[in-house]
Structure prediction request, 182 residues.
Amino acid sequence: MDKILEQLPKKAKDKHNENIKLFKKLNKKPPKHLDNLMVELHDNEFEKTDCLTCGNCCKTTVPWLNDQDVARIAKHLKLKEQKFIEEYLEVGEDNELSFKSAPCVFLGFDNECSIYNIRPKACREYPHTNRRRFHKISAITLENVAICPAAFNIVEELKKRLPIQYSEKGGKPREKFRRGGG
Prediction:
């Protein structure tokens, strides 16, 4: 896994322009079956992927927490919400709450989350590849493909399954469509 994580940022950078074009096309006219396709791709990838062998999301990013996350985690830790916020969180420019640092303070040496059953919504849904209206979160996805090997693989598989034809070298998508696609 270490080698995969070492190579992932470069692979994501190499595919960045191609991925931007993909999302522009998806935003312009998303296929009717995109939500179902994303659930299928996500489920297929996570049958093969064990997050505990990676944990890169918890090691390198900080999730946003909503009010329900704060209340749930503070209660679990037997802290008042304000005390939990002061000790563990920082408030961003737009009043969003996130953990103060990465790696996550709740991440164990074995990549296990000590608050797994009550973890923040953003953590439960990561890498957000099976959510409805997936094409609307392109900025997040473009970041996640450089962090999460599963997200990278899902986006690559998405490009194979959509009717947009990409060149062999990962260059510009051709404007012609494959037969039988979509």
In short: Residues 2-28 form the longest helix (27 residues). The first strand starts at residue 64 and ends at 65. The mean pLDDT is 89.
